UniProtKB/TrEMBL annotation:
Membrane topology: Multi-pass membrane protein
Location of the PLD phosphodiesterase domain: 232-259, 413-440
Keyword check for Metal-binding: no
InterPro entries the record matches: Cardiolipin_synthase, CLS_N, PLD-like_dom, PLipase_D/transphosphatidylase
Gene: cls
Enzyme superclass (EC): transferase
SMART domains in alphabetical order: PLDc
Assigned keywords, A-Z: Cell membrane, Lipid biosynthesis, Lipid metabolism, Membrane, Phospholipid biosynthesis, Phospholipid metabolism, Repeat, Transferase, Transmembrane, Transmembrane helix
Enzyme Commission (EC) number: 2.7.8.-
Primary residence: membrane
Subcellular locations according to the entry: Cell membrane
UniProt-listed CDD domains: PLDc_EcCLS_like_2
Listed transmembrane segments: 20-40, 49-70
This protein's name: Cardiolipin synthase
């Protein structure tokens, strides 16, 4: 075909475009709908598949490209290759380390939960640990800073959101002092989770560079780094601090001001309420291993096991602890399976604290089943939500839960209850970074800690009492009386939240 033919073809198209275009769009519409029915349901949970199909059927030309970009919760290729290497190493290590013995008064089903965690994450149950809880935001930052100031060899810091501001200045000063005296300091922070708070993020980067602290952003948003589009909303949501492999912190709190430096929140007096746990004993080495894995992903530096795992010959703490990591790097939803296992095992009481409660069907049925067989269930959520979609989506579940007998405690505004933990039967606690929502189950890398023992539960119940005193109980009558248009928004957001 020569230039003249191309000109004639273009001329014909320009002349007939208004006639041809509707037929072309109709054909494209049909092709995309048929392709969606074939492709979308493959290896996908029904509620997610239905949500994607609905979006594509309503507007195929927009919905299908969005599905191609956001429809697969899969890590970039190079990271998947690294994950396979790490999984093999962790499995091999796990075979040589026996689980610690549970207390004699532990329920029989707790051993099943330990076995499940070990199969999913390859982390053993460790004994001889001590643990302390902290719920005051500034105090936890200052206590972490105090531990960093006592560091002799290493300081490992990993947070989803991190920034240097008035609240975190003391912590970063401690990090800088440790680095200046020769302590090896490594810092990780989620790219999106920290970058969006630009002012404090920029100050943090400058500070770390000034003190020669090695640092990396986790899951950097580089959509085409492997030569194919990568989903940008896969994030590392963990929160960890490990000092010398001997002292560790984990929980729900980020390394940033309690109002996240948002002017609107500052004016409204909004503060995030968190729960953090300080640990000593063999479990800290397991936390250090988890940090080492994330460090390997971002830096390509493989920190050897003997550098991360420290002997604890005199560990005589009263608690058995087991780390339960989860995220898109694992085959299954580790945190969801653990929660469901514990809910089905409960015989007396379940208390769940989660700022974002958007369960999948399996978790919803686990809770309803527990409630119907007489288990007392209490769910703590925020009265004020900070994310429109998630807040309305989770509210769409309240009617079903209240009708089943679940008590819902709404933490009074203007505070945002951001803590995340569950307690079951005065026997076991799970605390960490994981919300009880679909994002935490599928898209985010999370770290949870299972702690056995009634002594630890005493302190957990004290914290629950504090949260209960700051909350009001939602009744079914009050909830059903909300305006009809609010119900429509809730149910629409519930459908949208299933698109993962």
């Amino acid at each position: 075909m020569d230039w003249t033919d191309l000109q004639e073809a273009w001329g014909w198209f320009a002349e007939h475009v208004l006639i041809v275009l509707p037929y072309a769009l109709f054909a494209l519409d049909v092709v995309l709908r048929i392709a969606a029915v074939i492709v979308v349901p493959r290896n996908r949970r029904p509620q997610s598949a239905f949500a994607w199909l609905l979006a594509i059927m309503v507007l195929p030309i927009v919905g299908f490209p969005l599905y191609l970009m956001l429809g697969q919760a899969q890590l970039p290729r190079k990271r998947r290759e690294k994950q396979r290497v790490v999984n093999r190493l962790m499995r091999a290590r796990s075979m040589d380390i026996p689980d610690s013995d549970l207390d004699e008064d532990s329920p029989s089903w707790l051993q099943s939960a330990v076995a499940l965690n070990r199969e999913l994450g390859a982390y053993p149950l460790t004994g001889g640990n001590s643990a302390d809880l902290e719920i005051d935001y500034q105090t936890s930052l200052d206590r972490m800073a105090e531990d960093v100031r006592g560091a002799r060899e290493t300081v490992h810091v990993l947070f989803y959101a991190a920034g240097l501001d008035d609240w975190t200045q003391n912590f970063f000063d401690a990090v800088g002092e440790a680095a200046d005296r020769g302590v090896k300091v490594r810092c990780l922070y989620d790219h999106f989770g920290s970058f969006k708070y630009w002012g404090s993020y920029r100050r943090m980067i400058r500070f770390l560079d000034a003190h020669d602290v090695e640092h990396y952003s986790m899951m950097p948003i580089k959509p085409f780094r492997d030569g194919a589009f990568q989903r940008p909303d896969l994030r590392n949501h963990r929160k960890l601090v490990v000092v010398d492999g001997e002292v560790g912190w984990m929980g729900s709190q980020n390394l940033i001001a309690a109002h996240y430096n948002k002017k609107k929140l500052i004016r409204a007096g909004v503060r995030w309420q968190e729960t953090m746990v300080r640990l000593q004993g063999p479990i800290v080495s397991e936390m250090n291993l988890l940090f080492g894995i994330d460090w390997f992903f971002e830096s390509d530096e493989f920190i050897t096991e003997d550098q991360l795992v420290k002997p604890h010959p005199e560990a005589d703490g009263p608690y058995e602890c087991q780390l339960a990591p989860s995220g898109p790097g694992f085959v299954l939803e580790n945190n969801l399976l653990l929660f469901n296992q514990l809910f089905y095992s409960a015989s007396k009481r379940i208390v769940a604290v989660s700022p974002y409660f958007v369960p999948d069907e399996s978790m919803l049925y686990a809770l309803i089943t527990a409630a119907k067989r007489g288990v007392e269930i209490e769910l703590f959520v925020s009265e004020k939500g900070d994310q429109f979609l998630v807040s309305h989506a989770q509210r769409s579940y309240y009617t079903t839960l209240l009708q089943a007998g679940v008590r819902i405690q709404m933490y009074r505004e203007p505070a945002i209850l951001h803590a995340k933990h569950i307690t079951v039967d005065d026997s076991v606690t799970v605390i960490g970074s994981s919300n009880m929502d679909i994002r935490s189950f599928i898209l985010d890398m999370e770290s949870s800690l299972m702690v056995g023992g009634s002594d630890f539960m005493v302190r957990m119940h004290e914290i629950e009492d504090v949260y209960r005193s700051r909350s009001r109980e939602l009744t079914l009558e009050e909830w059903e009386a909300r305006p009809w248009y609010v119900k429509i928004v809730d149910n629409t957001c519930r459908l949208a939240s299933s698109i993962v």
